[in-house]
Recover the amino acids of this structure.
């Protein structure tokens, strides 16, 4: 089977970007260190987003949600322009080209709303009974049909996003239509705190892992700890980390990224690459509370 034509491509990253020292400059360097990893959308990053919300009126709501997710994701990236100011370094806005603007402009995700059994996804109810097997199977087939070698460190091939009614509502309720101006802000200011809460505690989507889905379908337990479902809630602010930390080969195994929810700790889980540490701290706090 010949490789599927690329739906989107971006120009090569300028060599001058190597002079930048911010995290976004590092993201750009990661994109070009191994060009073979990214043949489907050259020099870009993003995910396949599977729609799992098809109720009455959902067409317009889904389109609006994707527009807001796109706009706020770019805000999250552009804010990295000022992340080094607290260390006294030159901010990215003084560089030409601006690494943060380049990373933001190279975000592109593919919406998938037609696939087999799309109406049979079961959205989450905070009881741990969600089931996105149809979306997962479609994602596995999508990768197989690309006709290319799926680089293990490219999140576009290894992780997709799923938007059901619950995550759709979180986007529409949690992301204001008007995005904030990206500018230097005091770390402890109210304005900065509001933006951080919007990105890290508001809107979320489901992330679905290809290899865990394949193992589940084949009834393979890769290690004793491999008992988690292939999908997990992921906050908007973590999406850049989910993509680029895989490229760095810094992500833990799938069964180690399930962070327990603050309140529904035994039923609701959030993607976090430091989940095991967070869960130990939370368990100790719960145990201490019981003893009291």
């Amino acid at each position: 089977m010949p490789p599927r034509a690329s739906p989107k491509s971006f120009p090569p990253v300028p060599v001058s970007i190597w002079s930048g020292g911010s995290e976004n400059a590092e993201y750009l360097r990661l994109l070009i260190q191994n060009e073979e990893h990214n043949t489907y959308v050259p020099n870009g990053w993003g995910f396949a987003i599977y729609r799992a919300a098809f109720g009455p009126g959902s067409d317009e709501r889904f389109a609006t949600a994707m527009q807001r997710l796109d706009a706020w994701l770019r805000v999250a990236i552009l804010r990295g322009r000022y992340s080094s100011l607290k260390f006294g370094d030159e901010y990215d806005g003084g560089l030409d080209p601006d690494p943060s603007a380049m990373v933001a402009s190279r975000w592109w995700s593919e919406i998938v709303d037609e696939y087999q059994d799309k109406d049979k996804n079961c959205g989450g109810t905070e009881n741990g009974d969600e089931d996105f097997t149809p979306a997962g199977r479609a994602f596995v087939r999508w990768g197989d049909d690309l006709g290319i070698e799926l680089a293990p460190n490219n999140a576009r091939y290894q992780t997709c996003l799923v938007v059901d009614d619950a995550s759709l509502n979180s986007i529409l309720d949690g992301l204001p239509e008007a995005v904030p101006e990206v500018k230097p802000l005091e770390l402890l200011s109210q304005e900065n705190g509001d933006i951080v809460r919007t990105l890290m505690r508001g809107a979320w989507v489901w992330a679905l892992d290809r290899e865990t889905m394949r193992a589940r379908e084949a009834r393979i337990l890769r290690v004793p700890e491999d008992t988690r479902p292939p999908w997990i809630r992921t906050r908007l602010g973590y999406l850049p980390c989910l993509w680029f930390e895989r490229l760095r080969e810094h992500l833990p195994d799938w069964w180690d990224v399930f962070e327990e929810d603050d309140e529904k700790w035994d039923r609701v889980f959030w993607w976090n690459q430091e989940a095991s540490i967070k869960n130990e701290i939370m368990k100790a706090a719960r145990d201490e509370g019981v003893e009291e």
